[in-house]
Amino acid sequence: MTTTSTHAASLTDLLKWTPEGEGKTRQRSQLIILRRPDDVTRELPCVLVYNFLPALLARDLLTDLLRETPTWHRRKWYLFDRQVTSPHTSASSVATEPQEPHNGGGFYFGGSKVRVRPYLPTMVEARRLIEAKVNCVLAERSRNPLESRDPWQGNKTIANCYNGSAEGVGWHGDRLTYIGPFATIASLSLGVTRQFRIRRFPGVQAQRDPLASPGMSRVFGIDLPHNALLLMLPSMQEEYQHSVPRYTPIDPHPLSGNIRINLTFRYSRPDYSADHTPHCHCGVPCELRAVTKQEATLGRYYYMCETDAVHGQGKCSFFQWMDSGVTGSLPPPP
Ligand SMILES: O=C(O)CCC(=O)C(=O)O
Ligand SMILES: [Fe+2]
Q: Which GO biological process categories is it annotated with (predicted)?
């Protein structure tokens, strides 16, 4: 474990996709590099496995995905009144086997239906091995009542392609839409090594560790080489944010050069499918998230309109707590 001191940009700066360290530096942070899987498991709700897939499968999967990346897209959405474009390309895939009909209801992002692709044969092979690993890990843990009782299935993936060090992803927690609370996300890295960073949501940090200095956050860095599998376990999306910082040094990979591809396998739960998700006044399924800022409601789950993310017209007033069904209007975004 290595510790250095750095400055991380505020959440708002990072959402604007400024490189880490650029822009306003209101919060001081300590960067702790985790090099060993044991350190990762001790510090975070994560499991890291190096060289996870058989080497030939990892190579074939990377080759297949590299062929596909020219057809992947940059997501566009609105942040306040400004349109922003993701600094990497992505594609979503769903398993379309007959026993997975709930996936047929479709997926929405920012109020628009997401184009989904079928799994490639190499993704199907990787999925089976990842499912076995995830279910082994989950069997050793006690389950939260809100977690699915089903065996975990990697039936949906989001693939990201980072072409060179100028591409990355800013601080965020993954939406819980379709995957539900206390989700497990299995993240497979292919190609060039990039650093994955993790820190507590500031509101969660203040509650969990009230003695920590308020202006200081601990940021964990994990270098993810080709064929590393990182499992983000239940509570990770509720308590921590993650990012792939830009402008970090890159050591080219023999097959992919400066490109890193990341595949996140998720369990799209039948009980959280689009058909079971409340629809907002715009008529589209809501986004599901946990409260990560307000102390009084920290950890509660809520459904909210997310259409302005794509259309820039402002959210409709729909708001619903997941647990109690209480509805109301949200305060304006910060
Ligand atoms: O590329 C990665 O490792 C992270 C991708 C990610 O955060 C996401 O797809 O939500
Ligand atoms: Fe993410």
A: DNA alkylation repair
State yes or no: ipTM above 0.90.
Answer: yes
Say yes or no: CB of residue 65 within 6 Å of ligand 1: no
Identity (one letter) of the amino acid at 33?
Answer: I
Q: What CATH number corresponds to the domain at position 267?
A: 2.60.120.590
291 three-state secondary structure = coil
CA of 306 relative to ligand 2 center, distance in Å: 17
Whether the CB of 217 sits within 6 Å of ligand 1? no
Please write the tens of the pLDDT for every residue from 92-145.
Answer: 998 876 555 555 557 777 777 788 899 999 999 999 999 999 999 999 999 999
Residue 247 lies in a domain: yes
Segment 276-315, tens digit of pLDDT: 889 988 888 899 999 998 888 888 999 998 877 666 677 7
Q: What is the pLDDT of residues 162-215, one digit of tens each?
A: 999 999 999 999 999 999 999 999 999 999 999 999 999 988 887 777 777 777
158 lines ligand 1 (CB under 6 A): yes
The amino acid present at 283, given as its one-letter code, is G
Residue type, 48: L
Alpha-carbon span 285 to 291, nearest angstrom: 19
Q: Tell whether ligand 1 has an atom less than 6 A from the beta carbon of residue 187.
A: yes
Cβ atoms of 183 and 143 closer than 8 Å = no
Q: Which structural domain range is residue 173 located in? A: 40-194+221-271
203 domain residue, yes or no: no
Q: Is 153 in the pocket of ligand 1 (CB under 6 A)?
A: no
Over residues 222-237, the mean pLDDT reads 97
In a domain, 261, yes or no: yes
Structurally, how many domains does the chain consist of? Answer: 1
Ligand 1 mutation pick, 158, 160, 196, max ligand atoms within 8 A of CB: 160
Asked, for residue 18, whether it belongs to a domain, the answer is no
pLDDT of residue 8: 32
Burial 285-306 (b: 16+ CB within 10 A, else e): bbbbbbbbeeeeebeebbbbbb
Residue 179 structure tokens: 């995957």
Contact predicate 13/23, CB 8 Å: yes
